[in-house]
Amino acid sequence: MQKTLKKYFVIFTVPTLFAFCLAFIVPFAMGLYLSFCKFTTVTDATFIGLKNYFRAFEEPDFINATLFTVKFAVIAILSINVLSFLMALLLTRKIKGTNLFRTVFFMPNLIGGIILGYIWQSMINAILYDYGTTLVANAKFGYLGLIVLMNWQMIGYMMIIYIAGLQNVPTDLIEAAHIDGATSWQTLIKVKIPMVMPSISICLFLTLSNCFKLFDQNLALTAGAPSKKTAMMALDIYNTFYGRSGFEGVGQAKAVMFFLVVATIALTQLRFTRSKEVEQ
Amino acid sequence: MNTKKTVNHFIFVMLCGLIVLFLTPIFFIILNSFKGKLFISDDPFALPTAQTFAGLSNYTNGIEKTNFFAAFGWSLFITVFSVIAIILLTSMTAYYITRVKSKLTSAIYYMFAFSMIVPFQMVMFTMSKLANSLHLNNPWGMVILYVGFGSGLSVFMFSGFVKSIPIEIEEAAMIDGCTPLQTFFGVVMPILKPTAITVAILNAMWIWNDYLLPYLVIGVSTNYKTIPVVVQYLVGSYGAKDMGAMMALLVLAIIPIVIFYLACQKYIIEGVVAGAVKG
Amino acid sequence: MKKKVISALLSVAMVATLLMGCGSQEAAPVEEAATEEAAPAEEVAPAEEAAAGEGQVYYLNFKPEVDEVWQSLAAKYTEETGVPVKVVTAASGTYEQTLKSEIANANAPTLFQINGPVGYQNWKDYCLDLKDTDLYSWLLDSSLAITGEDGGIYGIPYVVEGYGIIYNNAIMDKYFAMDGAVVASTDEIINYDTLKAVVEDMQSKAADLGIEGVFASTSLTPGEDWRWQTHLANLPVYYEYKDKKISDTDALEFTYSDNYKNIFDLYINNSCTEPGLLGSKSVDDSMAEFALGKAAMVQNGNWGWGQISGVEGNTVAETDVKFMPIYTGAAGEENQGLCTGTENFFCINSQASEADQKASIAFVEWIFSSDAGKAAVTNELGFIAPFSTFEDDEKPKDPLAQEVLRYMADSSKTSVAWNFTSFPSQQFKDDFGQALLEYAAGSIAWDDVKAVVVERWAAEKAATAQAE
């Protein structure tokens, strides 16, 4: 069978590979090369070695954006996961209306980042207006706003994954714990949480990579204001490319470093989940 | 058991409170989309009164300024055709590289898997330059780019599933005289349906909401702007002037998603969970 | 099952096509109001065909406030000549950014603008030499054009503008008639101290004057802050350059920082909006406040007339709209006039096809020489055009342009040059603007703002030098 199928290489794979090369392989290779070049368009590149990488750190913007991203990610990941896990616990208690709750909590996840960002921008501004200030007046507001927004968007999503995990916990295991006289708190800590560990690691990494790659919401909510204090890495890279002239190479160098960070996170996740699977 | 009932009762009330909290932003924009633009900042959480009620003028304004229906049409066009192309092409590719074992096919597989971990910013600049020099700045060009960009995750998910299909079924079909294409569409594709739905939903959600790729490739000067691009464009240049139109546009932008979601809720939730677990 | 799926998909596709069709048809009558003309889908193809032979124009407009005028001018030109003209307006404060992503597009702008020598350095690869065009020969003062190192002409200014403090004379007269008015006429306001005394006295009598504040909102929304980080910032830089007898510098000391603070504090503390809320205000908002009589003064240029006269329920009489210079407490400011100059230079995309370049030049020349074009320039755009094709009676008649012309003709007043064309980059201006926003909101002190200006100026000058 393999032999006959083999002759169909062109029909089965070439259309996808063509699009894939166009949209990914070629731009990726070019991007990697151009990060070592000085250029304004892709055709006028001259090789300058690592200079772009040094220049990326000459100004505080990139480091600030990285720090802000980390600061944002830590709090957002913790709050999203804790809250969504709690809600998943509540929704697996067979309460009436569970389906309706699930439907509503999940919905924000489907709304695009740009639209989401503006919804929250207008609402936060409306609230702050009564206190005589605005979202862009202080970086604290933008920071908290982003965290609330991300929670709103991702809690439902993570909750669904936790629900799926909790439903897979065998009921006899929980009953056995009850018979042994375990309180519900003990059941939670000793039985449920260990059993949903795979879901937890999936959710942790999903939130982590989503927080790191966040762009649309950031652009729409504050666009980095005030003074780029709420700009995250992706937005900083975008601004370096398109906000100014002569910085294309620096932007590309930042993008390569950003890629390395995101790839490290993804690979760690892969390792982590693989080893977990083996343990079970 | 009585205590459990009261506890559940309490939880029910709490969840209802949470629902209200969750829907507040949505209510907020709906409410204000019916107020005159000068009154929105006065008392943003109040219901429109006779004085502040603006009828549908915000909606007509927003629609006129952005040519919203055209944007809706292009968003739909790009999403629908990209998803069809992705399902068709990547399932074929995934089938081929899973069934034909060679160094080349496994190299291809790893390339697709690799592309999943690369953030868009890495290729943003070079890709949009390349796309423009090849004149892909139109809806069909966008379909090609989305196939290229979506192929990583899609091929990955399809191959995972193809591996689990017993090869005997295909072999039987081949012995019956089916060509590989007939085998694929007649035998394999129907089995792949659940995965295809998952892949379709994940890609549709991403493409429908995507902002940066259409903004960079299509730009703001053509008539092919998608919904996220017009929202950003309206708010960026006119938002400060016309809060009313902005609110109306935000409401309009989420209506299609909510309808789609309510109609295909089951598939969406399942698809997203499956995507998260496998991806 | 398969059939069902296919028919469902087909119907979706049909709905999509239908919607696109009606969307564009509905938009047709309101084309001028739309941000860009949406040519009905069916007409796109023929237009592109025509373009292959005769060239077409794509103008990326800088001024959002006159977007509609450009749209109608473009439509009129297409009607007369058949040459397709597309006008797209960049969102406020994002012109460079939009130009950058658009110029990389296959259908790049053929006509765009730069803001002066600094802009030319960024865009010189895209600027066509315009030395042999009629437009250049019409320029009244050819030294205003942007000249490259090779002697070519790469940017041609198309408007002379002036800005200062616009005031509502009716409200001022009402104040002068009150008991205990600090001065008796606006003619007596010739320096910062007098201005401050008058403004603060007026603010304390705001209720009696029927205003909410003396100054309209100091709009500090990102992208809406150019009146402060560019125009107002011009004054301290002008005086510093004057002291040092230079026209550009790599290291600004911001020696007139206190003068800037003087006037900025006066603006934000005697305003119809609390300082903390200024981050939500746009230029349009503040022009509307002035037009509705909620404020007596607003800093802006003569281009703002359209925003005043266009406001619904506008209470300001045309004869009451006047200009006064911006006083900051600098020595010798008694003779200071308005700030006049230009930061709008037309450039033709040198990388566009020759046909498109020719079409773009022809379009611009039509605007500044045909009767229809000139009428729109004078009456609708309100431009004081620096070209010999305009007769004396073709100067704009709106009150602000008249005031600018009056100040320019007054030999006792010295106009302040537009030195902000030497500001290092848009990035510098944005950083400055955001620092002002944080200062107004009380998040940082004035010394921090001063530090931002000095540091960012040096850093951006160095960065742009390195980028070349």
Question: Which features does this protein show?
Answer:
heterotrimer; B: 279 residues; mainly alpha; MetI-like fold; 2 domains; 12 helices; 0% strand; C: 468 residues; alpha/beta; D-Maltodextrin-Binding Protein, domain 2; six-stranded mixed β-sheet; four-stranded antiparallel β-sheet; 12 strands; 47% helix
How would you describe this structure to a colleague?
The complex is a heterotrimer of chains A (280), B (279) and C (468). Chain A has 280 residues and is mostly helical. Chain A folds into two domains: 2-34, no CATH class; 58-279, MetI-like (MetI-like fold, Orthogonal Bundle). Chain A contains 13 helices and two strands. A two-stranded antiparallel sheet of chain A has the order 1-2. In chain A, helix 4 runs parallel beside helix 7 (139-167), helix 4 (61-91) packs antiparallel against helix 10 and helix 12 (233-242) runs antiparallel to helix 13 (248-279). Helices cover 78% and strands 0% of the residues of chain B. Chain B is built from twelve helices and no strands. Chain B is globular. Chain B has 279 residues and is mainly α. With 468 residues, chain C is α/β, with parallel strands linked by helices. Chain C folds into two domains: 32-157 and 343-385, D-Maltodextrin-Binding Protein, domain 2 (3-Layer(aba) Sandwich); 162-339 and 409-467, D-Maltodextrin-Binding Protein, domain 2 (3-Layer(aba) Sandwich), CATH 3.40.190. Chain C is 47% helix and 12% strand. Chain C has helices spanning 2-27, 41-54, 67-81, 95-103, 117-123, 134-138, 169-176, 192-204, 206-209, 226-232, 234-244, 257-269, 283-291, 305-309, 354-369, 371-381, 399-409, 426-440, 446-467, and strands spanning 57-61, 85-89, 111-114, 146-147, 153-157, 161-168, 213-215, 295-301, 321-324, 336-341, 345-348, 414-416. In chain C, helix 10 crosses helix 18 and helix 15 packs across helix 16. Chain C is globular and about 70 Å long. Chains A and C meet through loops of A and helix 4, helix 18 and helix 19 of C.
